[in-house]
């Protein structure tokens, strides 16, 4: 897939401190390790099996390696990592065992709802459960989306 861009100032607040607040090198290294652990934990919470999983953080870019079973698993991992406050890009270097068509990504705008997005992209507002299911477990409730969040939009 490659490099994906996200809104740096939107997303889940996983990181304890902003890097600008850290001035002592030892403290910066500990913060970096804490942030990496928070990213690993977010991916683990998805419950997706990833062989040879590795994640690195370089500035505002997350680099992710590993092997997953499906394209949707890969996309969910990219979105989970990218939808974190402070992350601007995800450099996806994962491989997929059973390739399938890629979903498109959609950045939520102010006033959006899943039904409004489904109406615009599928022509039918009642297809919003497809978008909700495609974004589980990242989304816990179809009514809880926010501007700047990036969602998977599966092909029909």
TrEMBL record:
Keywords: Cytoplasm. InterPro entries: Bact_Kbp, BON_dom, LysM, LysM_dom_sf. GO terms for cellular component: cytoplasm. The keyword Signal does not apply. Residues 28-98 form the BON domain. Pfam families: BON, LysM. The keyword Kinase does not apply. CDD domains: LysM (cd00118). Residues 104-153 form the LysM domain. SUPFAM superfamilies: LysM domain (SSF54106). It is found in: Cytoplasm. It comes from the Bacteria. Its main location: cytoplasm. This is Potassium binding protein Kbp.
